[in-house]
Design a protein that fits this description.
- With 200 residues, this protein is of the alpha/beta class.
- The protein has a single domain, classed as Ribonuclease H-like superfamily/Ribonuclease H (Nucleotidyltransferase, domain 5).
- Helices cover 40% and strands 18% of the residues.
- Strands 3-2-1-4-5 form a 5-stranded mixed sheet, with helices on both faces.
- Helix 3 crosses helix 4.
- It is globular, with a radius of gyration of 18 Å.
- The C terminus is likely disordered.
Length: 200
């Protein structure tokens, strides 16, 4: 019940601003390691599949923001997560949404309350407003379903010998999603957008 109340409060915050020129993006970070993500696979009936796997732990962190309404996505690979790396991502994101800002839109970037997101040392670029999602209510963030899509379609059951190979796979995934706005909008659909349109 607590999580539901938090979600309703967050939804109310956005829908009340639906009459303004607001573009809502949801942001999150996910870690992808060299450890093989094991999952279901097709195989000939009657035979038992054998799958090689890696248990190495080095990571790439994928930082991304998506607009569930338009399917626009902005992503960046980071070797670590801290205030400095999030600052780099924010500046990258600001460049990509600059045309919207120039059109008079305020960009709402919904983030969780990770330490580097709430740091006082952050310099948030003009035209961007950080919106903090409720603690313990990850279901609000549609980016979570995007991570599931990437794992299922790009990294599952795949061995990466080193970080360069893993980077190549993640770049392939991000390139595909950048060119597939309709797919991203479908994956990241959230009721918040629908409610805003109804109120508008």
């Amino acid at each position: 019940m607590k999580i539901l109340k938090k979600q309703l409060k967050f939804e109310k915050q956005y829908t009340e601003a639906s009459g303004q020129k607001v573009a809502l993006y949801f942001h999150d970070e996910a870690g992808f390691s060299l450890t093989t993500d094991i999952g279901y696979t097709w195989y000939q009936a009657g035979e038992r599949p054998e799958l090689k796997a890696s248990t190495s732990r080095p990571y790439w962190h994928l930082s991304a923001a998506a607009n569930p309404e338009t399917g626009d996505i902005s992503s960046m690979l980071l070797p670590w997560l801290n205030t400095d790396s999030f600052q780099i991502y924010l500046e990258h994101f600001a460049e990509e949404v600059e045309p919207l800002i120039d059109e008079g839109y305020e960009i709402w970037l919904a983030v969780d309350r990770a330490g580097w997101h709430i740091s006082k040392d952050l310099k948030v670029p003009r035209g961007i407003k950080l919106i903090f999602m409720p603690t313990g209510a990850a279901t609000i963030n549609p980016i979570e379903t995007l991570w599931e899509f990437i794992r299922k379609n790009f990294t599952r059951n795949k061995i990466h010998k080193n970080l360069q190979e893993l980077e190549n796979t993640l770049v392939e995934a991000c390139t595909y999603l950048t060119k597939s706005a309709q797919k991203v909008a479908s994956i990241c659909y959230t009721s918040i957008i629908g409610k805003a349109h109804m109120l508008g």
